[in-house]
Every structure is written in structure tokens, then in C-alpha cells.
UniProtKB/TrEMBL annotation:
This is DUF2189 domain-containing protein. The keyword Membrane applies. Keywords: Membrane, Transmembrane, Transmembrane helix. The chain crosses the membrane at residues 48-68, 74-96, 125-149, 161-184, 214-243. InterPro entries: DUF2189. The keyword Membrane applies. It comes from Brumicola blandensis.
């Protein structure tokens, strides 16, 4: 269970002065297992809404795969990913609202969760654009790494190995950066209606001060996405709503508030 810091540690993030940083609590390493447990309960209490959002997350990769198979045009991945980066935060906001309604002892509805997507629309769109810029940055780096491969060399594992290592390292670094930025940003934007800079810096600060706990949570997310891929995205029907609900419970457990939260 999370607990208050005896004294809030000072970091380069919360002392930067760029924007307000909302204080966070100290997490135990395996706190995310509790978030998953609460998320499963939310799924059970709202199965129709959960499966509706799960179907959306499942259909998106299916549509991308179908377009690639039928057109043979792999460049369709790029515009499809851009659309997903812009729509993803809105779908996540709908899931957060379901858990939030349970916390407030209300009965969630699909209509209410859809309306929640526009609670902080400007900053949520800005968040989607930020994710898109990061994705474009990664695609540019990937193309540069590919361009470094000599055209006269044979495509073999021995020749590709240095480039695979380079791509993996760069991808891992960018993934860590994205996780720092996104871990708690979306629920902060939705509930508190703060500006994007405040939400992003608060998320980064919370992850930095709880590195081991957040690494474990990130590992769960990575494994869940992997499970979705190996099941041809069928598992996303259940996994994505649970990850969404768990993210909300993680936000409640981590980011400090002035009033008591109905956590359980």
C-alpha cells in the first residue's frame, strides 16, 4: 500500500519551475498487483462497457492488419498509428471514468464515459499530439538506422546484428521516456483539468520517485501487450480495459490529493 514520504524528495523535475508538480506518494514494489485486482473487480461490475472498449482496442489492430493484407501497402501503418495515437488517450479516458464512477458510488454508463473524454479536451488533444511527435521521432530514427545498412551487404543475422542492437537500445530509451511521460498524465488531465505541462511533470516525478514499483508495472503492461499480439489481438478484448482501470487505480494510489479517496 502506498504511503506518504516522510519528506518529499527534491528532484530536478519538481524543482525545475517549468510548471506545478503535484506531490506523489511512495509505492511498494508490487502495489500494481493490487491495482490489477481492483481493475478486475471493475471489469466484473461493468462487463458490457468494458467489453465495448475492449472491442475498440481489438478492432483497431485488426483493421490495420486487414488493410495491409488487402492492399499490400505497408505504409498504411503510418497514418493508422497516427490516428491511434490521437484516439488512444480518448479511449483511455472513457475507461478511467468507469473506475472513477465506481469510486464515487455511481453507476457507470457508456454515455457518461464517452462524455468524460471531453472534460479537458484541449490538453488531451495536445497530449495525443505529443505522443504522435514522439512516434514520428522514433520512425525517423528507425529510418536513419536502416539507411546506415550498406546496400551491398547480404541480409544475414550476422550482418544485421549490430543494427538490431542499435535499434533495440534506441527503442528501449524512447520507450522509457514515453512511459515516464504517460504513466499518470491522462488521468491527471481528466480529473484535475490542469495544463499538459503540470500533468506530464507530475507523471515524470512520480515515476522517478517510484522507479522499482513503476518498472514492475511497466513489465506487466509489456507482457500484456505481448499476450495480445500472440493471440492475434483477441486478448486485448479483456486486457486493455483491465490495464485502463488499473492505471486509474494506480493514479489514485500514487498522486496525492487533499481529500480522502474512496479507493477500495
Amino acid at each position: 500500500m502506498s504511503q506518504q514520504f516522510d519528506e518529499m524528495p527534491e528532484t530536478a523535475i519538481n524543482s525545475s519551475g517549468i510548471a506545478r508538480v503535484i506531490p506523489c506518494k511512495k509505492l511498494a514494489v508490487f502495489d500494481s498487483l493490487k491495482w490489477i485486482s481492483l481493475a478486475i473487480n471493475d471489469f466484473k461490475k461493468a462487463p458490457v462497457i468494458s467489453l465495448t472498449y475492449g472491442a475498440a482496442f481489438t478492432l483497431i489492430p485488426w483493421i490495420i492488419f486487414y488493410l495491409i493484407e488487402t492492399t499490400g501497402w505497408y505504409m498504411i501503418i503510418f497514418p493508422a498509428m497516427v490516428c491511434f495515437m490521437l484516439l488512444g488517450p480518448y479511449l483511455a479516458a472513457g475507461l478511467y471514468d468507469v473506475s472513477w464512477q465506481f469510486e464515487k458510488k455511481h453507476k457507470p454508463s457508456l454515455r457518461h464515459s464517452l462524455k468524460a473524454m471531453s472534460r479537458n479536451a484541449v490538453n488531451e488533444w495536445a497530449f495525443g499530439l505529443l505522443l504522435m511527435v514522439l512516434m514520428l521521432f522514433w520512425l525517423r530514427i528507425a529510418s536513419l538506422i536502416h539507411a546506415l545498412y550498406p546496400s551491398h551487404m547480404e541480409y544475414s543475422l550476422a550482418n544485421l546484428w549490430p543494427f538490431l542492437i542499435m535499434g533495440t537500445i534506441v527503442g528501449a530509451v524512447l520507450t522509457v521516456i514515453v512511459f515516464f511521460i504517460t504513466a499518470f498524465t491522462q488521468p491527471i488531465l481528466m480529473e484535475r483539468r490542469v495544463d499538459l505541462a503540470t500533468a506530464v511533470l507530475t507523471s515524470m516525478n512520480a515515476v522517478w520517485l517510484n522507479k522499482r514499483a513503476m518498472f514492475f508495472w511497466a513489465s506487466i503492461i509489456v507482457f500484456s501487450v505481448f499476450l495480445g499480439f500472440v493471440t492475434f489481438f483477441f486478448a486485448f478484448l479483456f486486457i486493455m480495459p483491465i490495464i485502463g482501470y488499473a492505471s486509474w487505480h494506480g493514479y489514485i494510489d500514487t498522486i496525492e490529493v487533499k481529500r480522502e479517496r474512496g479507493y477500495e
